Amino acid sequence: MDIHIRTQVEFEKVIPQDWERSILCTRSRMSVQQLLDTQDSKEHLQRRLIEYLKLTTQMFDYMATKQTTPLITQPSFDWSIDGEKIHSSCWRIEKMMPAIALTRMLENEGMELIANESYKKAAKKFTSSVEYHDLIETELKCWEWKTGELNHDELHFDWHVSRSYFLKGLRDMCTLCVGIQKQLSSTALFKLTEIIIKKFVLSITKWHDSDAGLYLATIECMRHKFYSDILWSEEKYGQSIHTLQNWCVRRTLEMEPFCEIKSEIEKNDFLLQERINLNNGAYFETVEAPEPLKLPIEFLR
């Protein structure tokens, strides 16, 4: 994770001396700085980031009660994200940067859990990450004088709104995997894919190069697969085959790290041939297009 604190701040030399937690806040920030640089322990770093975030909240609450009391000195906050310098005298930076680091950590942990097929645990990580995105959005709403050089994606309000929708979509993809494992009905799984598509489309409309674009075609494939299953159960055999042929086979899709979805999609070629054979041998239905599903963009209406 390429996030670092570039310079120290000694809060006891900034805040008037009647706030007794200044030194604790300085030490907490120094600990975060060291752990971000060394990456020795992800668990320890996560605890320290949460601790520092709580301390900054207490510090801001205290300063809000002392608005007429001047600071001893005006600090400058220096961080970096992905090698890009973040330099500002705005105190909101100190609340946002730990939260940004936590969103990245939780998201990475979620993806690792998906790779291990721990879908329920992964979903909880994405939910926690969204909570920190919400906190950052609140701070960005109030940051009215952000200068032009602070142009990193993660300092834009819309980027965090987009990322939240994307993570909610990933969370629901985890639920989809659990549903496939439990062999839920095609109707239930179909409805869930539509919920995911809406979240991914919302993410893309908020931020043009959202990672939701990686998985949108995959979920569209899954939606049409479950639609094909529904049509087959309704004895619309030709329409079911047409849907599989046109939406669910011979497609290049992003499926990692969702092993359950990958396994389901890889069955489509065999399933299609099986249904063609059954139709040719027993049902003799014309292969034709069914009523089309809603386009992804129509989920915004």
Outline the fold blueprint.
Layout: E1 3-5, H1 22-38, H2 42-64, E2 77-81, E3 84-88, H3 92-115, H4 119-142, H5 157-181, H6 186-206, H7 212-233, H8 237-247, H9 259-266, H10 268-283
Antiparallel strand pairs: 1-2, 2-3
Helix pairs in contact: 1-2, 2-3, 3-4, 4-5, 5-6, 6-7, 7-8, 8-10
Descriptive overview:
The chain is elongated. It is mainly α and 301 residues long. The two termini are 38 Å apart. The chain folds into two domains: 1-117, no CATH class; 156-301, alix/aip1 like domains (Serine Threonine Protein Phosphatase 5, Tetratricopeptide repeat, Alpha Horseshoe), CATH 1.25.40.280. It has ten helices and three strands.
CATH architecture of the largest domain: Alpha Horseshoe
The total count of strands amounts to 3
* Structure class: mainly alpha
Number of helices: 10
Placed side by side, the strands forming the largest sheet appear as: 1-2-3
The arrangement of helices and strands along the chain is EHHEEHHHHHHHH
Task: Describe, in short, the structure shown.
The chain is mostly helical.
Tag the structure with descriptive keywords.
Serine Threonine Protein Phosphatase 5, Tetratricopeptide repeat
